[in-house]
Amino acid sequence: MNIIEASNLTKTFGDFTAVNNVSFSVGQGEIFAFLGPNGAGKSTTIKMLTTLLKPTKGEVLLNGKNSLTQQDEVRKTFGIVFQDPSLDEELTAYENMKFHAVLYKVSKKGLDEKIKSLLEFVDLWDRKDSLVKQFSGGMKRRLEIARGLLHHPRILFLDEPTLGLDPQTRNHLWSYIKNLNQTEQLTVFLTTHYMEEAEKIADRIAIIDHGKIIAQGTAEELKAQTQTASLEEAFLSLTGHAIREEGATGLDRMREMRQRRAGRR
Amino acid sequence: MSTIYILWLRQIKRYLRSRSRIIGSLGQPLLFLLALGYGFGPVFKNAGQGNYIQFLAPGIIAMSILFTSIFTGVEMIWDRQFGFLKETLVAPVSRFNIMMGRVLGGATVAAFQGLIVLIISILAGFRIHHWQSFPLAILFMLLIALLFTALGTAIASMLEDFQGFQLIMSFVVMPIYFLSGAIFPLANLPVVLNYITRVNPLSYGVDGLRIALIQQQHFNVGLDLFLLSALSILLVAFGSYLFSKIQV
Fold first, then answer.
1. Are A216 and A206 in contact (CB under 8 A)?
2. B122-162: per-residue pLDDT in tens?
3. Does B92 sit within 8 Å of A72, measured CB to CB?
4. Beta-bridge mates of residue A60
5. What residue in A sits closest to B90 (Cα-Cα)?
6. What is the span of the domain harbouring residue B140?
7. pLDDT tier at B118, thresholds 50, 70, 90
8. Assembly ipTM
9. How many domains does chain A have?
10. Which pLDDT belongs to residue A265?
C-alpha cells in the first residue's frame, strides 16, 4: 500500500491556481523528493498534505486516512520540519520536546528515556536545558527533527530542511535522515533547492512547475529522459532557465523582520 | 484539557523568563500614573473631585491590562509563522483547545501585570478603601484580561502580517483606553462622548475596578460583571470561530 496517496489535488487562491490537478503516491519507506522552482506549488502541496490547507479539489490519503475527514488520525501519522522554525525560543530544548509529547498524547511511560535517546541521536542531549534562542540554525533544525519523531510518525515531512545551513551540518542532517529511513522504515517527503542533495538521498523525485507535476521518477530516469548528466541539468532542462519572480507575501515581509531582529541580537 | 494546560503553562513560562519585557511594560503605566496623577491632581481637587491619584489608579491598572492583553493576542501573528503555534496547528488537538490555552495564558499574564501596577500605585500613594473587596478587584482584572485577550486573538486571526497592527492600535486600542473613563469621570459628559463611553466595554471594567478598590461607582457592579462576562464569552466564541478558519 502507498503511504501517501494524493489524487487530483488542486488549490486555487482567487483566480490563481497554485496547484493544478496533481496526483502522486509515495510508498512505505521511500524517500521522495519534491522539487520545483520558487512559486511552483511545493509549499502549497506540503500544506495540503499536512492538513494546514484545504484542497480546493482532490483528495489526500496518508496511511489510508483522509486528510479532511480523519484529520486527527492523519496528524498523528506524520512529523514535520517546517521551512520556518516552529520551536518556542523562550523554552529549553527539553521543554519543547515535553510540550510536543503532551500535544501528541505520547504516553508518559518511558517518555524521558525516549526524549533522551532522540536528543542524543541529534547530538543535543548535553544542551537539553539551554533555551532554544541560544541555538544556531543547524541546532534548531536538529531539534525540530528530534521533536518531529517523538510521537513515532510513519512519515516525516521536511520542507527545505537544509536551507541556510553549512555543508557540514547539511551532511550530518542527511545522514540522520538516511539512518532513520533505513532502521525505522520511515517514509520521508522532502523539498529542497539543492539538487545534488536530492540526487544523493531520494529514491524517487517529482518535479513540479506552474502547479503541475512535469516529471517523475528516479534521478537516473530523469537524467535519461532529458539526456543530461546531473539532476541539476535535468531540472533546468525541464523547468527552463528563466528566474522566477514571486510577489512578496505577508510571510516574506515577516521573514525580513525576523532577520533584522536576529541581526540586532 | 492537557492541551489547554500546556499552552497556558507556556505563556506563563515565557512571561516569567522575559524580565526585561516585564519591566519595560511597566514604564508606560508608571509614567501615566505619575505625570497625569500628580500633574492634574491640583486641578481635579479644585474642581471638587477629590484625590486624582485615587481616581486614576484603577484606570491605569485597566490600561496596562488592556495593552498587555491585546499585545499577547496580536503576538499570535508572529507565533503562527515563526513559533510554537504552527507546531500546534499540525498536532492532533482541537483548534478550540489551542485557542483557549492561548487566551487563558495571555489573560493570566495580563491580569498579573495589572496586579503589579496596583502594587506600584500603592507605592505611589494609592490607597485601597476596603480590603474585603480586593478579591472582587482581582475578578475584574481577570475579566478585563480575558475579554481583551480574546479580542486581540480574534483580530490576529484576521491579520496576515503586522501591517494592519498600527491601524488596530490607533483606531481600536487607543480609543478603547481614552474613551473609557480611565482618566476622567463619566458623569456630565457631552452627549456623543457619553454614548461612546457607554458602548465601550472597558468603561465597565474600569467602573468595576473603582467599585472594588475605592467604592466609587458610575454604573453598578452587577451590570459591570454581567456585561464583561457576557462579552468575554461572545468574543471567545467569535475568536475560536476565526481561529478555526486559520490556514497557514
1. yes
2. 998 899 998 999 999 999 999 999 999 999 999 988 887 77
3. yes
4. A6
5. A75
6. 2-244
7. very high
8. 0.84
9. 1
10. 46
